[in-house]
Design brief:
The protein has four helices and no strands. The protein has 62 residues and is an all-alpha fold.
Length: 62
């Protein structure tokens, strides 16, 4: 998965207004206490970030 696909899925899940804020502000234990943006900056794979988002929110990965 590419970063653009991760961002597209986040917009589908959270909406265009909430997705950018979610990526910057929500800390995930599933990402080692990082936000989505921090995890991306550290080089974490987008598909792993998406899985963490899904687990965090109790939604299907697909």
């Amino acid at each position: 998965m590419r970063i653009t696909e991760l961002r597209r899925r986040m917009v589908e899940q959270f909406g265009p207004d909430w997705a950018p804020s979610y990526a910057k502000d929500i800390v995930h234990a599933e990402l080692g206490g990082q936000t989505v943006e921090e995890a991306l900056a550290m080089g974490m794979e987008p598909h792993e970030i998406w899985r963490a988002i899904c687990r965090h929110n109790g939604v299907s990965e697909h």
